[in-house]
Specification:
The complex is a heterodimer of chains A (about 375) and B (about 500).
Chain A (H helix, E strand, L loop, with lengths): L6 H20 L6 H25 L8 H17 L5 H25 L4 H19 L5 E2 L8 H7 L1 E2 L1 H28 L7 H25 L2 E2 H19 L1 H11 L1 H6 L4 H27 L1 E2 L7 H11 L11 H20 L4 H24 L1
Antiparallel strand pairs in A: 1-4, 2-3
Helix pairs in contact in A: 1-14, 2-8, 2-9, 2-12, 2-13, 2-14, 3-4, 3-5, 3-12, 4-5, 4-12, 6-12, 7-8, 9-10, 10-12, 13-14, 13-15
Chain B lengths: L4 E10 L2 E11 L4 E5 L6 H8 L9 E6 L2 E3 L4 H7 L1 E4 L11 H5 L6 E2 L2 E2 L1 H14 L15 H14 L4 E5 L7 H16 L3 E5 L3 H7 L2 E6 L2 E7 L5 H9 L17 E11 L6 E11 L3 E6 L5 H8 L5 E9 L2 E2 L5 H7 L1 E4 L3 H5 L6 H5 L8 E2 L2 E2 L1 H14 L16 H14 L4 E5 L7 H16 L3 E5 L3 H7 L2 E6 L2 E7 L5 H8 L8
Helix pairs in contact in B: 8-17, 13-14
Classes of the chains: A mainly alpha (about 375), B alpha/beta (about 500).
Chain lengths: ~375, ~500
């Protein structure tokens, strides 16, 4: 479909540069390889969850329960490993299965009983939060039993060594370049509009620059963190699902006009339940990463992450009414939210102020987007 | 007697259509004046103009109220002058009480606060004027349609209306409620309140109206005094148009039965009252079955139900190509080879924010796969084929559908239906709101479909179109089959009489 960068994408890029420059001036260590590696992990967690959220916002729904879900899914795995001495792999599998089932159930309630997603997931927010605290007994449960690392803790402590990282980035770039060339040739063969050769080259060039800077910086620390690779995989999967499968088409159609989609033969209920189920899987992945990053399940893990995920979607140009939103936009939105939080933490900004600033940025971003959309 | 309300040579144009052409109309004090005409004759436009919804300046010609020029800038303006419209979809708030509704927007006050004593007292008085024996604190949501209608009239009287305009007031009423309403109108007439009465139901019109004005194709045809005319004369005035448009229907060679509907009854919701009663018909390969009927006769409901998108079935059997069709969902209907192009393009037809290509392939995308992924090359070729064969006028397949003209949007809706390779095609008002050229292309397409052995059901409000394009015509009346006519036996008068639930008697 549309491969052209729009004005909106540029506005995101510019906002991001502004935020980055501000923090670099205020706290030079913002650009340090260590901090950028941390930022990359934080981005990966926020963006992964936001991409899951995109799947349910596209057909016009919402999920407020993902924050509590993140805590609960991490908590289940922690308790199985630390209290019951399960192998990490099995514990992770249990969390994953529980999340898939719970979100499939919520999706079914929403479409079959016609209860608004807002209400069902608000209930989920409270129920999952309470269940989470019950599961961990309102205590702190480490993700490893006895100090050594396991599959669970490695989720955020594993780094690809510098050489492997460089190879990985080179492969990713080669893949992107190949795909873009193929898409371009195909589109022009079908008579569709394509970017000028200069524009296409510029885009690839900028991508290459970005990837190169990224790998050089993180390699000065420890290499590419595993969560970034997980985000890459999730993003690839969601991109393929939303853009290249009938299921994805149907998500956009339902969000654009549910009645017309229904009359056109779109299986509306099945599609929405599918979107929620996929989101459940992503909540589990995010929950494991977030808990591993914190080192242990505590009662505050996952707090207000649903808001960051929704904010990332909206800042990235996703319409809460459904029918509009892209993977790339959501990743940019998550990058803005994660950079803000990371930068403010570096500056030791008071928590009160952090909330206010994030709120202001979200409001500004949406206001700008509405203005640009009116053009 | 001088007129209370008069419209002099009113012309109203919309982009591409002239809705009213030099229409003149007058209403005398204390008169009930009925307005009759086919769907689309211009009745609604005239009402919207009289009630200020189309403000002064948006039309040519002049309005007079009580002998003075009237230039309504808004509905509120017309209301202040003394005109009130009672619409089909009632404008009452279900969650509020009757008395609150009566004074909605003009609550009596004492200082800054609402004067509740007056609301209850005056509310009771108003209800008495329309003969409603109700406590003023009854919730409107607890009332039936008939009582709601009377509350609407009471509300208008509370605003000192001198002219009531009723648009199809009895469409949803039971017989006894209709009698109550008509009696009230006669009572109001005695007290000098005039009324414009719009209805398809000629029995009511003849029971209550002093004069009848017939509109046709946006022009006043004739104004008749009720005692000096009869129903057949009114029907003839409503349809008496020459069929000048060109209908290129080819001779048909009906084949085997593709769709058979036997004694179908259906309701909107489980446990609700039936909207479709004992409907039976057959549709053969290569045939066009026209379905006509007045607004609310159940045409759209019938198509949507067979397609699995409306209501629940109470009884009856439906078979498509010999296999039972249970109307479970559009997905099942499409799989069985049935497709529907909806009358309401914007609501049921298109994803307006998406591209032409997205919309064209929407119903077929699950088949255009290679493994789990969409085969984009095949999709683009399929889209391109329809895009050019239907001659959609747009820069490219990636143009947003919402930016297209009505005719081109309709072509996209049809293209989407055709891509599913159906055996039976339901077309609900396929030419509504599109220009003559695009209409002709739709007719040509219908011919091509039947030539390929597909069967077409064509629902239309325009009698010339039904007569010109159908091989057989089924008229619906109030959810029932009012009559089925082979092409040779169909005349406008007969069809309209069947739509009104009458058999035409010799005049």
């Amino acid at each position: 479909m549309k491969t052209k960068l729009t004005l909106r994408d540029f506005s995101l890029l510019l906002s991001l540069l502004a935020i980055g420059s501000f923090f670099t001036l205020a706290a030079p260590q913002f650009l340090s390889s260590r901090n950028l590696s941390m930022l990359a992990v934080e981005l990966a967690i926020t963006a992964t969850l936001a991409l899951g959220m995109l799947l349910v916002i596209l057909p016009g729904h919402i999920d407020l329960s993902v924050g509590s879900g993140v805590g609960l899914m991490g908590g289940i795995a922690s308790v199985l490993i630390f209290n019951h001495h399960w192998p990490a792999g099995a514990a992770i599998a249990v969390s994953m299965a529980a999340a898939l089932l719970l979100w499939m159930a919520m999706g079914s309630l929403i479409v079959r009983q016609r209860i608004p997603a807002f209400i069902i997931t608000l209930g989920g927010l409270l129920i999952f939060k309470g269940t989470f605290w019950l599961v961990i007994g309102s205590r702190t449960i480490p993700v490893v039993a006895g100090g050594q690392s396991n599959l669970y803790s490695l989720l955020t402590t594993f780094y690809f060594p510098p050489v492997a990282s460089a190879v990985l980035v080179a492969l990713v770039f080669a893949g992107l370049a190949g795909l873009s060339r193929r898409a371009r040739r195909r589109r022009s063969a079908l008579g569709f509009a394509v970017d000028d050769a200069e524009v296409a080259f510029l885009k690839l060039f900028l991508t290459a620059q970005g990837l190169l800077l990224f790998v050089l910086t993180v390699n000065q620390f420890r290499g590419i963190p595993l969560p970034v690779v997980i985000l890459g995989c999730v993003a690839l999967v969601i991109q393929v699902i939303t853009r290249h499968t009938p299921f994805g088409r149907h998500l956009y159609a339902i969000g654009g006009n549910e009645e017309a989609a229904f009359v056109s033969g779109v299986p509306v209920q099945r599609t929405v339940i599918g979107a929620f189920t996929l989101l459940g899987g992503i909540v589990a992945v995010t929950g494991l990463m977030q808990t591993a990053y914190a080192g242990a399940s505590t009662t505050t893990v996952g707090d207000s992450m649903e808001l960051d995920a929704i904010a990332a979607c909206v800042i990235g140009g996703t319409s809460l009414r459904g029918g509009r939103g892209t993977v790339l936009g959501v990743i940019f939105g998550a990058l803005i939210m994660a950079s803000l939080l990371n930068g403010m933490t570096l500056l030791a900004v008071a928590p009160e102020l952090k909330f206010i600033v994030r709120g202001v940025v979200l409001t500004l971003a949406v206001w700008m987007d509405v203005k640009l959309a009116k053009r | 007697m001088s007129a209370l309300l008069e419209a002099r040579s009113i012309t109203k144009r919309f982009p591409g259509v002239t809705a009213l052409r030099e229409v003149s109309f007058d209403l005398r004090p204390g008169e009930i004046h009925a307005l009759c005409g086919e769907n689309g004759a211009g009745k609604s436009t005239l009402i919207k103009l009289l009630s200020g919804l189309h403000p002064h300046g948006s039309y040519d010609g002049e309005l007079f109220f009580d002998g003075a020029p009237a230039q309504f800038a808004s509905i509120a303006d017309a209301q202040r002058t003394g005109l009130a419209v009672i619409y089909q979809e009632l404008a009452l708030v279900d969650e509020l009480t009757v008395a609150e509704n009566l004074f909605l927007g003009c609550e009596p006050r004492r200082g800054a606060l609402i004067d509740w004593d007056r609301i209850w007292r005056d509310g009771r008085a108003l209800l008495a004027r329309v003969g409603l024996d109700l406590a003023p604190d009854t919730l409107v949501g607890d009332l039936g349609v008939g009582s709601k209608q009377l509350v609407e009239i009471a509300k208008a009287l509370g605003k000192n209306a001198r002219v009531l305009i009723l648009d199809e007031p009895t469409a949803a009423l039971a017989e006894r409620e209709v009698d109550t309403l008509l009696e009230l109108l006669r009572d109001l007439r005695r007290r000098g309140i005039a009324c414009i009465y719009i209805s398809h139901k000629l029995d009511e019109v003849f029971a209550v109206a002093d004069r009848i004005t017939v509109l046709r194709d946006g022009a006043t045809i004739i104004t008749l005094h009720t005692p000096a005319t009869n129903k057949n004369e009114v029907i003839r005035a409503m349809v008496g148009r020459e069929i000048t448009e060109f209908f290129p229907r080819h001779a048909s060679h009906p084949g085997e039965v593709l769709l058979s509907v036997d004694d179908l009854c259906a309701a909107a919701v489980k446990g609700g009252p039936a909207r479709l009663h004992h409907i039976s018909f057959e549709l053969r390969a290569g045939e066009v079955l026209g379905i006509g009927g007045l607004m609310g006769a159940g045409r759209t409901e019938l198509l949507m139900h067979l397609f699995g998108a409306w209501g629940t079935r109470l009884s009856g059997r439906v078979q498509l190509a010999g296999r039972p069709l249970d109307a479970a969902s559009p997905v099942a209907a499409l799989a069985a080879g049935l497709v529907l192009a909806s009358e309401d393009r914007k609501r049921y037809g298109l994803i307006l924010a998406e591209s032409i290509g997205f919309n064209l392939s929407l119903s077929s995308i699950s088949r255009l796969r290679r493994g789990a992924l969409i085969d984009e090359e095949r999709e683009a070729h399929a889209n391109q084929g329809l895009f050019s064969s239907l001659r959609v006028k747009a820069p490219s397949l990636e143009t947003t559908v919402g930016t297209l003209s009505g005719g081109n949007q309709q072509k996209v809706v049809l293209g989407k239906a055709l891509m599913t390779e159906p055996r039976v095609v339901f077309l609900d008002e396929p030419t509504r709101g599109i220009d003559v050229g695009a209409k002709l292309e739709v007719y040509t397409l219908v011919n091509e479909l039947t030539a390929q052995g597909k069967a077409v059901v064509l629902v239309s409000s325009e009698l010339p179109e039904l007569l010109g394009m159908s091989d057989r015509i089924l008229m619906l009346h109030d959810g029932r089959v009012g009559g089925v006519f082979p092409k040779a036996e169909a005349t406008p008068e007969r069809l309209l009489a069947a739509a009104m639930g009458r058999t035409l008697t010799a005049a």
